[in-house]
Amino acid sequence: MSLTRTTCPYCGVGCGVLAGVDGTIKGDPDHPANFGRLCSKGAALGETIDLEGRLLHPKVNGADTDWDTALDLVAQKFSAAIAEHGPESVAFYASGQLLTEDYYVANKLMKGFIGAANIDTNSRLCMASSVAGHKRAFGTDTVPGTYADLEQADLIVLVGSNLAWCHPVLYQRIAAAKDARPDMRIVNIDPRRTATTDLADTHLQIAPDGDIALFNGLLAHLVDGGKLDATFTGNHVNGVAEAISAARASNTADTGLTPHELNAFFTLWAQTEKVVTIYSQGVNQSSCGTDKVNAILNCHLATGRIGRAGAGPFSVTGQPNAMGGREVGGLANMLANHLELDNADHRQVVQDFWDSPTICTKPGLKAVDLFEACANGQIKALWVISTNPAVSLPDSDRVAAAIAKVQFVVTSDIMEKTDTNDLAHVLLPATGWGEKDGTVTNSERRISRQRAFLPAPGSARPDWEILSDVAARMGFSEAFDYQKPADIFAEYVALDTAASHIARDLDLSIFADADYAGLIPTQWPRNDHRFFVDGRFYHPDGKARMIAVTAPILSKPRFTLNTGRNRDQWHTMTRTGKSPRLGAHLAEPYVEVNPVDATDLGAAPGSLIAVESIYGRTLLRALITPRVAQGQLFAPMHWTRQRTTAGIVNSVTAPLTDPFSGQPALKSCTVTAQVYRAK
Ligand code: SF4
């Protein structure tokens, strides 16, 4: 049986997969992200491709219908809302599960033809703070290094990242590198002890949101120890004195770490030239996430440890195509191809290229604000594409109520029953992994193909095609006359050529004559390229900026809830929930509780704990473990209302966001906890 060369649809590592129609799944030995490795989720992909629960035909108000009826209705409702209330009255909420071609078409329709920027994505929950931090420091959204840097580093600092569970193959690559080079040092900075900690030489059990105080302390230590690279900063970096001054004002006691722990970490970082700092949701998902990112970037810029082999900051993306989405502007504050929405010249380039009747002139609503606009009646028509915001957003009961208030809601999904689909007027069946064709970009800027190896079930269609058909019905048929994903990819590359006179990091010229069908995994701007090796950044003066960041004043509630993910589940379990093997890992909703707190609460292993905030309540099984510090709780977010009647975790989390990125603070929510039922 022949196997199809494709890409895993789960995390941002972007592993190559060889897949067969009988469910055979193998790691692709030739893919440069994984070299044949797969994690538990990737290896179980063959167990998740059955048709149980699939949405097979369009539905209007719960009844099966044909595509023409459904698409006519969607186009008519969106057009009517725009005509009566203006373009700001409609919104798309998309997903890092979408392929780049899907994202490109959705972004083009909203920003160039509807004329608003109300398209945001669940990637807002994933890496928006890194995007904002990159743009502040580098002048564009650039991941400087490559996966090879992680293997070449002498010191890896993992901040707010349970790589072992959330990016397992990258973790495996680092573990193998450490095995080969035992001198490699790994420091894990996390309020919680995780599976990743097992690989680390040192675990710094930092206070929640103590990261700015820590990296500001490190910056001051580096300067005092003579480690400032005056040549590099003098030639290539602005804002140095201001950032150092702000760093000195921080109090490292706010980290919750001992002076001995701090000094050992600072000394190790200062003495190691080849240091890579990896960070993900523990940094990004915070009300000060962007400042945390810049506190990290400041240390690399101050020492010139960026753009070199084995040295640099490295933001890993959560979703399989979070990176591709940001490349084509699938966020409410971006244009396409790393062009700036607030720059009139950039807008003109895009509008001319699209030959569009309009172009949005101001940022749209970011995820949390978008659903608040649903609640307050601004949004009259909403299209949710391949995601489940009624479960995944903070204060999710309010989000569900907000969606229910919107006059017209359409969802495109592979599954029929989801918490969000239950609130929609129209359901459109989309093709899923293994059934659709397109590209994704992983955390190291590598574009790989997802390829279909299964027939589309029922009358399901790819998202780009559904969006294009609605666009045509809204009067834009010529601009959306795509016949296949390759046409869209070619247009995306051509837009890059049209904008080539504008200084940006994104450079797709390597794909200009690409054989789309046979596309091999390739990085932009070219394979193995590291940015900033020449000290050239993308602010108008060509320099980077260190940003003065101030550590937040931390409150000390009785309990802080940290949320996250399990090793064997993906988001709201749409696919991974189908595999008994994956479900057996951690079978029911739980909360990690420190043993001292458990004693205080009178909780035994397996007791039901009521975790409550001013937003809502959930009941969770107590998992008593010293992995969490006293006063902290941890709960995974996977279980939906359809899988538990005891309240979902995001009913409890607060809709607080970072002021620069709009990313929700899902890692530190003030809650109460009490025993609901002893075991
Ligand atoms: Fe898929 Fe990520 Fe696992 Fe690779 S590490 S197989 S991309 S889930």
Care to describe what's here?
This protein is of the alpha/beta class. The chain folds into four domains: 4-48, ADC-like domains (N-terminal domain of TfIIb, Single Sheet), CATH 2.20.25.90; 59-116 and 349-437 and 452-482, 3-Layer(aba) Sandwich (Rossmann fold); 128-316 and 541-545, Dimethylsulfoxide Reductase, domain 2 (3-Layer(aba) Sandwich); 559-677, Barwin-like endoglucanases (Beta Barrel). Helices cover 31% and strands 16% of the residues. It has 22 helices and 26 strands. Helix 16 crosses helix 18. The longest helix has 19 residues, at 67-85. It is globular. Bound molecules: iron/sulfur cluster (SF4). Iron/sulfur cluster binds next to helix 1 and helix 7.
Write the topology of this structure.
Blueprint lengths: L3 E4 L8 E4 L5 E3 L12 H4 L15 E2 L2 E2 L2 H19 L4 E5 L5 H15 L4 E3 L6 H11 L8 H6 L2 E5 L3 H4 L1 H13 L4 E5 L12 E3 L6 H14 L5 H7 E2 L1 H9 L10 H13 L3 E5 L1 H4 L4 H15 L8 E4 L6 H6 L16 H11 L12 H9 L5 E5 L3 H4 L3 H10 L2 E6 L12 E4 L8 E4 L4 E5 L12 H14 L8 H14 L23 E2 L20 E2 L13 E6 L15 H4 L6 E4 L1 H7 L6 E5 L4 E8 L7 E5 L32 E9 L2
Parallel strand pairs: 6-7, 6-14, 8-9, 8-12, 9-10, 11-20, 12-13, 14-15, 15-16, 21-25, 22-24
Antiparallel strand pairs: 1-2, 2-3, 4-5, 4-16, 17-18, 18-19, 21-26, 22-25, 23-24, 23-26
Helix pairs in contact: 2-19, 3-19, 3-20, 4-13, 8-10, 8-11, 8-13, 16-18
Bound molecules: iron/sulfur cluster.
The site of iron/sulfur cluster has 14 residues, from helix 1 and helix 7.
From the structure above, extract its key features.
alpha/beta; Rossmann fold; Dimethylsulfoxide Reductase, domain 2; 4 domains; seven-stranded mixed beta sheet; six-stranded mixed barrel; 22 helices; 26 strands; globular; binds iron/sulfur cluster
